[in-house]
Amino acid sequence: MYAILGLVFVTLFIWVSDAVTLRNRDKQAGAPVGSIYSYMRPAWRLAQENHQRSKAASTGAARHSSISLPCTFSFSYADHHGNRARRTVNITGISSSGGQAYLEGFCRSRMDNRTFRVDRIQGDLTDAETGELIPVKRLLSSVHTRSSMDYKPLAPAPKSSTTKEWKTAVFFAGFRGGKLDELEGLAAAAGWQIRWTISPTVDYVVRNGSAGKKQLAEADNLGIDVIDEDTFRALL
Predict the structure, then answer these.
(1) What is the pTM of this model?
(2) Calpha distance 189→88 (Å, rounded)
């Protein structure tokens, strides 16, 4: 009983206080003012509007407290050379391998499925629907489900006692942009070492039609195996 009376008293007090505030505001603005009673109805409407705004704000906060996939984001992404490009991606999942997190989804910039290393994302993600800026850490903490990349290389049988047990160092010749990012992601997920210059430490040179003749000649002089993309994928 006392609790109900206390609630009524507090509500009445706030209502009257709002009415006094509205009356004083009009008085300071030089507008004609009436009695406190005449401000009771506007004060009630103001209280209802404030309640609705508070409710909408809390609903919005709850809606943004977690992120559900799939969801489309745009972000700045740097390749291994440090070249940055804007990507818009319908992210469908998050995977991890070797302690590294990856975003997976359909890249509208490349019109193909892509995998993006989180540590190469520059700045915040931009929600393509709302324009909201979202830190990538918030996406990772909101989406708890992870898949594991299961690219597991099979070691070939050694040719001789001096043959390496497993070849892991690879150089990609002639690949650019998204294709290079994809192949590097596959190699990294499989535990391969990536090289950016041709040297005796390279085990495979993966080439395409744009590979330079000088690079291929250098690989041949060093006795490095030169393979195409399909062979590389088969080795994974």
Answers:
(1) 0.38
(2) 23
